[in-house]
Amino acid sequence: MSDAGQTWRRSRTQRARRWLIGAALALVAAVSVISAQRQHGIARDEVPYMSHGMKYARWWIDLASGRDGTATRRHITETFGGPAATDNNREHPPLIKTLFGMSRIVLHERLGWASEVTTSRVPTALLHAAAVAMMFAFAAQLWGSAAGLFAGLLFLLLPRAFFHAGLATFDAPMVTLWLATLLAYYKSLASRWWGLGLAVAFGLALATKHNALMLPGVILSHYAWIAWRRSAASETSSRADRLRAFGRALIRTQPLLAPALAIGGPLVLIAVWPWLWFDTFDHVRDWIAFHTHHVHYNFEYLGRNYNHPPFPWHVVLVTTLLTVPVATLAAAAVGAVHLAGRARAGTSAQPERAPALLLVLSAAVSMGVFLLPSTPIFGAEKHWAPAMPTFCILAGVGIAGAGDRICRYLVGRGWIPEAGNFAGSAAALALGSLVATAALTETVAAQPYALSHYNALAGGAPGGADLGMNRQFWGYAARGVLPYLDEHAAPAPGQPPVPVYTHDASPAWGLYRRAGLLRPGLPDSGHESRGAIPRSRVALVIHERHFLRHDILVWQAYGTVQPDYVLTFQGVPLVSVYVRPPAAR
User: Fold this and answer.
1) Which three-class secondary structure state does DSSP give residue 541?
2) Which residues are CB-contacts of 325 (< 8 A; sequence separation ≥ 6)?
3) Residues 240-275: tens digit of each pLDDT
């Protein structure tokens, strides 16, 4: 066989091997996330997303089946919109919610495969698995299979990202669509027709979550750098000639870039969001305005509760530093140094497209907006989650680079024989296994209360609590006290119900009952402002700093300060259960 034939065959074998590895990583990710989410409590935001997702999915089914009146303005408004800012959850794009509904209709209602909660969460898990596979493919192509393998594994083994991947929310899907958009753009720099793929990916990202509005900041910054580098390569002397060459490079490098971002992406958004089919400008303006003027949620940070600006500029940096596994952070730092060294030496991978710069810009933009003290706080690390692929790819590159350097050191010392790429790969696998094992340990230990998890730098969950970091949100931890309520608070058959003040778990209470996780006879007593605590016989208090007053309200109503049960995570109180003494009933 000719040299060219052998090269083609090796390339084909390598591509097939990478496809198999990527598919295996995605399968492991999907199975592990879907299995683990069965122990996760129901987050408050999941409830409206799942219910409205069912409405959206049934609307699309009616449209596909040709039902009369489906596409009328009135029916679209009743399903997707309304006059108030949160009618039919119109403040969030519908794509992922629609997938929640479709999955639940097919897998739960028609096939009976799993519960309504699990089947609603399946799309998030599958999209997360796709992100793992994409990261492997991207890093493996540029920096080798070892870098790709550990990039994907370490992304899967991020404790908080793993938790979010098991919820029917938008944060994990946003990471996937963000990454897909960047990879489509990167491919479009070598193949102009990938500009169409960029338009589709960007449109789907817009239809997922408002974070996507930051993507042009990443892409246009990177594109300007690429165009400038290409124009600088031309032999021009005057500043005017350089500027003209730069302008030509902007136009010629990827002519479809501007149409993809300005026209193609928005058209895809409109196509999948019927609420935008009429009064488009007004509805888009209302959607963006809702988030730029978003209510400031309570957020505990370093011992202080924040609920209005200005916020500390370093929230995003410190929170990331204390929640990502330390071994992953260390490997990412090594990877950054390794890529910087290759750039100085002129040996960067595909320097004409600057993939490392694209990753750095992605993290800088997705995190940078939260450095501004006026940015609304309405969550935690999940809002800059699109930065996590950058950290994990850098970690994979760091592991591969460190393995190669260790191998060369041992060969130079004469301690091992020259063995081609095998020794370097073996060293990378050994080193990467240590890093991945450390991350795996944290991820397993963090479940199912990963929003209370902090890494070794913080001192674990107890250290995070001592530092005064945000302990949890969304009320999801209440699931952990349901077995106690069933055993100690549920009334015997024929006895009157025992009203429960469910606190922040109130939106999920009905879903817990339908899922069989809560026995009958424990109804939600209602909202705090409507006399729910005095009316209750059992009360839950979910521990966050701004909820301290709820303990006091229960103490006053129940005549006791002693909870009957406290759910803890690594010794940190998450939920207290109070039972009204008979004398106080």
Assistant:
1) strand
2) 154, 157, 158, 159, 438, 439, 442, 443, 455
3) 888 888 898 899 999 999 999 999 999 999 999 999
Tokens (6 digits) for 129: 């698995």
Look at residue 447 and give its three-state secondary structure. coil
Half-sphere exposure at residue 424, Cβ-oriented, CA atoms within 13 angstroms: 17
On whether the CB atoms of residues 435 and 332 are closer than 8 A, the answer is: no
Q: What is the DSSP letter of 170?
A: S
pLDDT at 137 over 80: yes
> pLDDT at residue 375 above 60?
yes
Contact between residue 315 and residue 373 where contact means Cβ atoms under 8 Å apart: no
Cα–chain center distance at 169: 9
Backbone φ and ψ for 515, nearest 5 degrees, come out as -80, 0
Contacts 24+ apart (CB under 8 A), 84-91: 85/286, 85/290, 88/52, 88/55, 89/48, 89/49, 89/52, 90/275, 90/283, 90/286, 90/287, 91/287, 91/290, 91/291
**Residue 577: strand pairing partners:** 540, 565
CA neighbor of 142 nearest in space, from 332, 280, 367, 342: 342
Kindly state the tokens that stand for 394: 């850098």
First to last CA, the chain: 90
| Torsion-angle region of 69 (φ positive above 0: left; ψ -120 to 50: alpha; else: beta) | left
What amino acid occupies position 368?
G
Extents of the domains making up the chain: 3-394, 476-584
* Residue 261 CB burial class (10 angstroms; 0-12, 13-18, ≥19): buried
pTM metric for this prediction:
0.95
